[in-house]
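Run log, item B.
One chain of 229 residues. Sequence copied directly from the ordering sheet:
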Amino acid sequence: MHIDPDQAERLHKFAHDLRNRLIGMQQVIERLQEETSAEERAEFVIFGEQQFFKALREVEMVMDDLGVVRGTVTPVPTRLLLPALISTHVDHMRYRFDRKQQTVVLELDDSIHVMGDERILGDLVDALLSNASKFSDPGSVITVRTTVKDQEVLLDVIDTGTGLSSADLEQVFVRFAWLSNRPTGGESQGRGTLARAKQWAMAHQGDLHAVSNGLGKGCCFTLRLPTCA
């Protein structure tokens, strides 16, 4: 395999940065084996997670810089009744909501149809529901709403959870970006799911947006899709 000098320099920088992240994670493992307070252990865990996701983000960046082609999503569209799809996937996720005693309020227009790939749109709905549950407090309410506006179908997933800062909003759809919010129930953090969800939305000629009034003030994720007669 032949690489040019610019690529060699980029790989050298990547190797250096990745080595630093791995050293950071090794240090966390060593410190967690020592006698430490609960507060210190929590700080070490956060630092270790930060190093882990920064390493994953650096892998993504070097692949972009080297022009590596990623797998693309090609939907196989059929005419779908969107409220039925949403209700099915809310039921699939019921165990997660029940575990945190969360209530899901459905405000669905039963007449809305879209052209989409049932599996991919189902995965997208799952991603939004999972994210809302993960970053919402036990006992809270999550609202799922569908509307039609300006020839677009809008699906809003609204929570009252941890919210996002303005800096977080700029990176929320960036794979493996480190955001300031944390899951409320100790759930694992994938930090790549929302990036994939946005890709899935765009593959359907739509888009995915997020708004938040700040940390601790909840979020609204809005999926936009073309209308279907």
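Observations after the first pass:
- The chain has a mean pLDDT of 88.
- DSSP finds seven helices and seven strands in the chain.
Flagged for discussion on Thursday.
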